[in-house]
Amino acid sequence: MVMAEAGNESRKREGEDSSPVQPPAKARALERELTLQHSLEALPPISPPPPDDFEELIRSGLLPPTSPATKLFRPVVERDTKYVVVSGGVCSSLGKGVATSSIGALLRGHGFRVTAIKMDPYINIDAGLMSPYEHGEVYVLDDGGETDLDLGNYERMMFVSLHRDNNLTTGKIYDHVIQKERRGGYLGKTVQVVPHITGGIVEWLNKVAQTPADGTALRPHICMIELGGTIGDIESMPFVEALRQLKFSLPENSLAWCHCSYIPNMSGQKTKPTQHSVKALLALGIQPDLIICRSAEPLHEDTKKKISNQCNIGLSRIFSCYDVANLFHVPGVLAEQHMVGLLNGILKLDDLDKTELPVVGARDRNLKSLLDWNRFAKQVDEAEKGAEVVIAFVGKYNKGGGDAYQSVIAALHHAAVAMVRKMKIDWIDATDLEMPKNGREQTAEEKELMKKALARLEACNGIFVPGGFGDRGFEGKTAAAGFARKNKKPYLGVCLGFQCAAISFARDELGLADATSAEFDSGENKKSQNHVIIYMPEISKDTMGANMRLGSHWVEFDDPEKSFASALYGGAPRVMERHRHRYEFNTAYRGQMQHKGLRFTATDESKKRMDVIELPLNEHPFYLGVQYHPEYKSRPGMPSPAFYGFVAAACNPDGIQEVIAKSKAKGTNNFFTPFML
Question: Has 31 been annotated as catalytic?
């Protein structure tokens, strides 16, 4: 028995000795691994990561309660809203507004509720008193806000209805903070740019971002923010700092920053301006998530790689925004480069609750998908190939460029696209149609200018007279209104253009040679006894800013069946349109003018304020004056009825009655009632 056990033990040892021997290197590696494992087991367990949010720390008792000043540096914000910020570098006029509205349009097309804010660094409270030469047109909102023209871009492209608070200026935020300080709202603290101004900006943005802008009662999913000016400007620093604070007041994946830059082509595409622009942004604590590069031609691949390498940003996040035939191609250009997909990755847009809106029939036309934008862009291209329709634009701010009349130009183009005609605007300075003041003789140069201007009025297809302030150009606009009436030229007069038409009629048909407006004939130098246009009694004369009849008001047709303007609105008995004026028609002259054939077809709700004048279609192909501003509610694919009728008459005066009949047969459009989707 003992011998058997000994034999078994011997065989066991022999079996062990026969196993393969581990190579020295593998053996050492195995030994190190076992040693490291034993060392790690000997260490204490890793503690859980501390919470990253101050509120969680307070709830867990790890921090003392915050001081009253904490909220100034970390304002409380709604944490379910996503933000897309668009800034600009290198130079101004890069198209930040177009980029902002195009991105918003794409997001709207994906079913997200979107709003937009324009931040302007100037100290003016609003744009109401700014010169059109310097700042472009004043865009008026439904609530009467006088704002930057970019809000017009937002409304036209995103099909939203914004409010005065959607335009934030340095003047507004300082006024807000100073008033709060006067009320004792800062508890005796020293009020400073940081944290009080920047905190006030964050609070403003948070409030506006929660305000519905699409006609529903649902708060927006996404807030587009355009930062006016150029990165590096002194006046925009508080806004940049406020946006930096906003980003870190929000959870991860809540704010995306798009930076627009310029790529000049000088013996090749140059990236140095963009590099410096992004470095300026980095110095302010902001790393852009996307870079939108403006250039004449698409970016070369090596240009993108250089920007990517020097600006710390992925190649796929650099967008090439090159020149296109018309601006309605821009949403398609961005979509081809996966703008919404990238924003989805940055902001986790798929997590948002896109509550389906009820089907609203005809009102669905306001929602624009990418397919809609591509289709409309092609329609614009087709219209550009069509026959020209020439509109004589008799204005006084013509030298300010297209920006001074941006909404009017957009409305004319919307109507021309609907008629598949190429819009050609012949800019005529109203002063070229004026006689010298104080009885002075015309110089040879002035006579030649007037002769040429009259020849251009004769050659055009239609005459348009826009609004304006001040007496310069007033007589020229009045002359243009009279020329259109006498020569059977299709005519549309807006605001002052309405008043000029009434004054011209009074002079020619009533024999009141001194008929004029109280705006240009008042005080000690008053000369006229016939003020056809008078100052509105409820408007104060002590101040100017925001001191007019502003915003949306009802326009009621007295007898829709007898008004071609009503027929253009689908036979509507009343419509909601935006106004901006201090002066109105003097109703003491209404009876005399009606007796001579001028029709007053629409008034305000009180029936005392005239809003629309017309000449019968059997006497004139198209003669319409409106006190309101229909251009503010013209949209791509949905032109303003007043502009549509005017351009249709200019295209074919003999066929205008058929166009009016078709418009009436279509019925009313809910867009021209209080804004609804």
Answer: no
